[in-house]
# Entry
Amino acid sequence: MQTGFIAAIDLGTSNIKGVVGKTNENNVISILACEVISSDQSVRRGLVYNIEKTGGLVRKMVTLLENKLGKKIAKVYVSVSGQSVHTEDFTAREQLSSTEIITENVIQQLCQKADNYVPKDYKLYSVADVEYFVDDKPERNPVGVSCSQIEGAYKMVVGRPNIAINIQKSVKERAGVDIAGLIIGPVAAAQIALSEDEKDLGCAFIDFGAGTTSLSIFKGGKLRKMVVLPFGGQNITKDISALNFTESDAEQYKLKFGKLMSKETTKQNNLTSPFSSKAKPDIDMEELNKVIEMRLDEITINIKEQIHNSGYESELGSGIIITGGASQLKNLDQYLTEKLKMPVRKASAKKMFINNYAELANDPSLTQVLGLLKFGKDNCEEVEVEQPVEEEQVQKEEKKQPEKKPQKTNKTKNTKNSETEGRIKNKFTDFFNTLFEDDSDE
# Structure
C-alpha cells in the first residue's frame, strides 16, 4: 500500500461520508482526504432507498475526494448496515482419529463450511468471528493440538439481499465506481474504537446513527451478538419538529439545547430560534428535553432487552461504550448509566490507529467510516497502464517522415494500366464464352 491508498464510503441515513487513507506496515492509518455530504433522504435506516440519487451523490463524493488527492479513485469499500443486519450462529465440525493433530488444512476445511453457509431468507455478508472447541473444550489456538473432534462456532453477519443489490446499482452502475468490497459498518466501528481489553472483559458497544442504532456484544475477545435497531437520532429530530419546527431547526435545537438529566428551572427556558432570520415560535426547553427523553426511553428499552437476551448482561466488565453522530447528545452517557445500571463512556477512533488529523479521529460521527479503512486490503488508486509501442507502429511513424523518393516514369504507370486492362478484358471474354457454351448444352 506504499504507492496507493484505500478509499471507503459510508452510506449513512443523514450523511454520506468518504475517506481515503494509507496504511503502513504497523497497520497505522494516515488520512489523505475526508468529505461529508448530505444523503438528501436517499438512504433510509442504513438502506439505499433512492438508487438514482444515491448514485449521483456517490459520484459527487468520489469527485470531491479526487480533487483533494489529485489522483483518480478506481474503486471503493462500502459499508453495509440496515435494520435487517444481525448475527446468526453456525457450527462446523471435523471428526479426527484419537491421535490426529489439528493442522491448518483442518482449520481451512471448517472455514470453507462457514463460507458455504446459506442463511434462510438472508444473504451472508461476513464471517465476523469464530471460537474453537477441541473435544468440547474452548481453545484459542487449536493448530498442533491432538484430539478426536474439533468444532468451530462461527458468528455470521447476515442481512436482506437487497442491501447489496441496491449498493451495486447505485455505486457500480449509476456512479460508475467499482466496489472493492462490502464491510459490515458496526463491526468496522468496533474494530477502530475498542481496545482488546474491553473486548476481553466484555462490553456493549452502541453506535448511535441517524436512522439506526447498532448494538454489538463482546466477551472473551469475541463478538457474541450484533443487532441493528430501527431507531436513531433522526427519530428524535422528527419528534422535535412535531412541536411546529422545520427538521433543520429541530436538528439544531437537539444538538445545541437538548440536555438530558437537566435539573435547571424552567423560568428562563423559553427561547427563540437563532437559526433563521424568519420569526419562529418560542420553544419550551422543558418540553424539548421531555420529547428527547421519551424517544430515548424507547431506544434504551430495546437496547436493554437485547443485552438481556444475549445472556451476557452480568458479564460486561467494561460496561457500555457509545459512539456515532447521535451519541453527541448532551449527558447521554449519564442518562444511559442511570437507565442501564452500567458505566458508560463515549468513544471515537483510537489515536493509536491514526497518526494525523486528530480532529477527525475525535469525531464520533466518523468512527464507522474510519473503521472501514482497517478492513481495506486492495489498492483503490486508478493506475494508468502505458500501452506498449509495437514495432509496426514505429515503422508507420518512420514512414511519415518526409524523404526524397525517385520519380516514377509515366511509361511504367501506363504499362501497369495496360496489363490491368488486359486482365479485365480476358475475364469478360471467358465469361461470355462460358455463357454461350452453357446455352448450347441446354
